[in-house]
């Protein structure tokens, strides 16, 4: 997967240090990684699975199984923006997405323009304030802890150390509207997914794989991208441009049957 992280101090990796805080505790955080979409205004006022009516101006979301009322800090891994939401509905039930966000929640993340985005969502305390929030300081760690990064989505546990409950809430404290950067100019909207079917130092090997794939799948676009890695030219074989990850995964499985390995990667418009 191409992460495309925007470099911010919050995402910077820092050396490990030994805590001297006597109140430090170790806790386990439930983390979800996958695609999140959002509700359109068509659903405004309609009854949700929890019984309450959908309010596009409230910071809510839909999830298939989490208990109603569960609060999540949802972070767009492309731009590092975060928001705290409350589970009030069931879904989404298509495209292997993990969350449907309210319009209010989707805006700070830059998802309204894109339609969907890859997110990391952490279960947070029930009294964490709803709304735009500071991103987790360990976002890169949360993402790297994913035990199955090639899957469309995963749910896993991450062990973290917090000085205290109060400090944990400060880390997820909301920011003011003025502090929320306008992501309309910087949001990285995904155009779809492709399969990287190998990376070769010898361009002839890449061309051979390209020819094999074209012979099996003449209707699918197969290109070769040239990159400079560690001072050496490499040729990557790229297959297709699929609208959803499951489409790309289906083709990847076909390639495996023909002895051609590959990884599904997300591509972006800009």
UniProtKB/TrEMBL annotation:
The keyword Lyase applies. Gene3D superfamilies: RlpA-like domain (2.40.40.10), Sporulation related repeat (3.30.70.1070). It is an enzyme of class 4 (lyase). SUPFAM superfamilies: Barwin-like endoglucanases, Sporulation related repeat. Keywords: Cell wall biogenesis/degradation, Lyase, Signal. InterPro entries: RlpA, RlpA-like_DPBB, RlpA-like_sf, RplA, SPOR-like_dom, SPOR-like_sf. Residues 187-270 form the SPOR domain. Signal peptide: none annotated. Its EC number is 4.2.2.-. PANTHER family: ENDOLYTIC PEPTIDOGLYCAN TRANSGLYCOSYLASE RLPA, ENDOLYTIC PEPTIDOGLYCAN TRANSGLYCOSYLASE RLPA-RELATED. Belongs to the RlpA family. Lytic transglycosylase with a strong preference for naked glycan strands that lack stem peptides. This is Probable endolytic peptidoglycan transglycosylase RlpA. The gene is rlpA.
């Amino acid at each position: 997967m191409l992460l495309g992280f925007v470099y911010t101090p919050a995402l910077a990796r820092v050396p490990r240090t030994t805590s001297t805080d006597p109140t430090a505790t170790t806790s386990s955080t439930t983390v979800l990684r996958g695609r999140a979409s959002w509700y359109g205004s068509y659903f405004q006022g309609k009854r949700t699975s929890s019984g309450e009516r959908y309010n596009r101006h409230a910071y809510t979301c839909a999830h298939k199984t989490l208990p109603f009322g569960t609060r999540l800090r949802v972070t767009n891994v492309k731009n590092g923006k975060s928001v705290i939401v409350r589970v009030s509905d069931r879904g989404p039930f298509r495209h292997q997405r993990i969350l449907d966000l309210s319009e209010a929640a989707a805006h700070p993340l830059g998802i309204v323009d894109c339609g969907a985005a890859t997110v990391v969502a952490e279960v947070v305390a029930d009294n964490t304030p709803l709304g735009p929030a500071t991103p987790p300081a360990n976002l890169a760690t949360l993402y790297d802890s994913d035990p199955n990064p090639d899957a469309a989505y995963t749910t896993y546990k991450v062990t973290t150390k917090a000085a205290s409950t109060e400090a944990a809430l400060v880390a997820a404290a909301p920011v003011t509207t003025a502090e929320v950067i306008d992501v309309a100019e910087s949001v990285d909207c995904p155009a779809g997914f492709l399969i990287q079917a190998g990376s070769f130092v010898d361009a002839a090997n890449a061309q051979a794989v390209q020819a094999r794939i074209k012979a099996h799948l003449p209707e699918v676009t197969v290109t070769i991208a040239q990159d400079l890695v560690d001072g050496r030219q490499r040729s990557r074989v790229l297959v297709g441009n699929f609208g959803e990850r499951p489409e790309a995964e289906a083709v990847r499985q076909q390639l495996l049957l023909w002895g051609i390995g590959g990884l599904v990667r997300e591509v972006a418009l800009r």
